[in-house]
Design brief:
Elements (H helix, E strand, L loop, with lengths): L6 H17 L3 E7 L2 E7 L2 H13 L14
Length: 71
């Protein structure tokens, strides 16, 4: 049985992600693969650092990995 988010949940997550990222001056792409969210973001370092700090505090986010960063 599948216990992951349904389409409505995904739409809500996407809309909230877009809104929050815009407030931080970030752009990017969000997708889900096998019940795992993958997000690619771009923006200034301060905005990205603030987002990562917020995600680390949110218990819904587990196994958070930063794959790469460029300047």
């Amino acid at each position: 049985t599948h216990s992951g988010p349904d389409r409505g949940d995904l739409d809500d997550i996407f809309a909230l992600s877009v809104r929050n990222n815009m407030m931080r001056g970030l752009t990017g792409a969000l997708t889900m693969i096998d019940d795992c969210f993958v997000q690619v973001l771009e923006g200034d370092q301060m905005g990205l650092d603030r987002l990562v700090a917020a995600l680390k505090k949110d218990q819904r986010h587990t196994d958070l990995s930063i794959v790469g960063r460029t300047k």
